Amino acid sequence: MLPEDQDVILSSQTIDYSKLVGREIQIRTEQFAGRILSTKVTAITEGNLILDRSGSSGRIDQLIANQSVEVMFDYKGEPVGFTSKVIIPRPGRVQIPIAGEVTPRVRRRYLRVPLSCAVKLTFFDDTNMGYFRLSKLKWLETATMNISGGGALVKVPVFSSKDDFMVMNIEMEDIAIPSLLVGRVRHKRRNDDNGTLVGVEFMVREDSRDKLPRNLIKNLPLKLFDFDEQMRTELATTLTEKYKNNIE
């Protein structure tokens, strides 16, 4: 099994937790070891998730205060979670403070290589795609921090929360990939020098209709979808073989 993506960290400041109100979350506790409890978030107050005490056949109401708890929920279609403690400020109220950092709960499909490649990229989202012209977009020159067959980690000086996608050109020596790729932003976090590290998933032709909004597909040039599943597999294999001593 591949190692967990524990080095990928999301700041809770970038997550709109109000969208969890009325939705179900899962929690893992010390008290009910080996069992995942499910309940709904009834409210969010002063940085705390307020839980429905009737969840998991009333087990939420039986929780003991100050025990460690792992909270799991979906964010942008991906399972994420954080570790906190159970707080019972008064009888009849169960709450969990929102942690400052959140980590993905998925396991990495492609091994990453710490490789710096020159990158030119431009951000966009599904609201500014009515008149897509590559030459009209603002391009940023940067570099990858690491790369895999499935995506890359790139450093940018600033980041707008509305930017969900990018077109990117990656310069790689002795490795053939299309000159332009479509990338989907999967996570972002601040770097020590006030820059932003952005995790990007490479979009392959076979997944484009399932993972991209229809208006994006309609407006994006067809040449942006030359990267397919076979190319992704070849890229992953080549990176693994070429940089096998530096795999993270």
Describe the protein in words:
It is a single chain. With 248 residues, the chain is mainly beta. It has helices at residues 208-211, 214-219, 229-242, and strands at 10-11, 24-29, 36-45, 48-51, 68-75, 78-85, 95-97, 101-104, 118-124, 140-147, 151-156, 165-170, 181-190, 196-202. An eight-stranded antiparallel β-sheet has the order 1-8-6-5-2-3-4-7, with no helix packed on it. A six-stranded antiparallel beta barrel has the order 9-10-11-14-13-12. A hairpin with a 5-residue loop joins β13 and β14.
Distance between the termini: 14 Å
CATH class identity of the largest domain: Mainly Beta
- CATH structural fold name of the largest domain: Thrombin, subunit H
Uncertain spans: 1-7
The rounded Rg comes to: 21 Å
Provide the CATH architecture of the largest domain: Beta Barrel
Q: What topology, given as strand order, has the largest sheet?
A: 1-8-6-5-2-3-4-7
What is the ordering of alpha helices and beta strands? EEEEEEEEEEEEEEHHH
What is the structure about, briefly put?
The protein has 248 residues and is mostly beta strands. 10% of the residues lie in helices and 36% in strands. It is elongated.
List the helices and strands and how they pair.
Blueprint: E1 10-11, E2 24-29, E3 36-45, E4 48-51, E5 68-75, E6 78-85, E7 95-97, E8 101-104, E9 118-124, E10 140-147, E11 151-156, E12 165-170, E13 181-190, E14 196-202, H1 208-211, H2 214-219, H3 229-242
Keyword list:
2 domains, Thrombin, subunit H, 248 residues, Pnp Oxidase, Chain A, 8-stranded antiparallel β-sheet, single chain, 6-stranded antiparallel β-barrel
